[in-house]
Specification:
By secondary structure, the chain is of the alpha+beta class. The protein contains three helices and seven strands, in the order βββααβββαβ.
Length: 155
């Protein structure tokens, strides 16, 4: 609402596939644990959480409307996972501040969905710029999107 962006221009006309490639590990927590399987709804909720935090500190400071957030989540529930090529990735680093090793973990690879609503595609497009999930200050959470018509092949 109130935006110049036409999210319908992000995705091809008709049936299309949306591929989310995790360029760097993406750490999304569910039920206080790092998720090893993600639904489209999990991804959109994490993106909305990050957008809200960045808006609070660097934007208007006003929360996203609960009505718009709820609507985006409802749109996300319509997406259907077609392919899951994710792998769990974990490594340890030494924290000088904490004087101990810290585990950094997340998912790498890609996920493919169909029935992605243009509004949620816009949320993902913003996430390409600001990152997704936790540990983005360590370089985690970088994603890349690809929208293609069904039946189209990249090759």
């Amino acid at each position: 609402k109130g935006s110049d962006t036409d999210y319908n221009k992000l995705i091809p006309e008709g049936e299309h596939l949306t591929t989310i490639r995790f360029v760097t590990p993406v750490k999304i927590r569910k039920d206080r644990k790092t998720a090893r399987q993600l639904s489209f709804t999990d991804i959109i909720e994490a993106a909305l959480r990050r957008i809200t935090i960045i808006n609070y500190f660097y934007g208007t400071g006003l929360p996203l409307s609960s009505e718009e957030t709820h609507q985006s989540i409802e749109y996300a529930k319509q997406a259907e996972k077609i392919d899951d090529k994710t792998e769990y990735f974990s490594f340890q680093r030494f924290s000088g501040r904490q004087k101990t090793t810290v585990r950094l973990e997340g998912l790498t690879g890609s996920l493919q969905f169909k029935n992605v609503h243009p509004e949620t595609a816009g949320i993902l497009k913003l996430s390409e710029r600001i990152g997704l999930g936790k540990s983005t200050s360590f370089g985690f959470g970088q994603i890349q999107l690809d929208f293609e018509s069904e039946g189209e092949t990249n090759g």
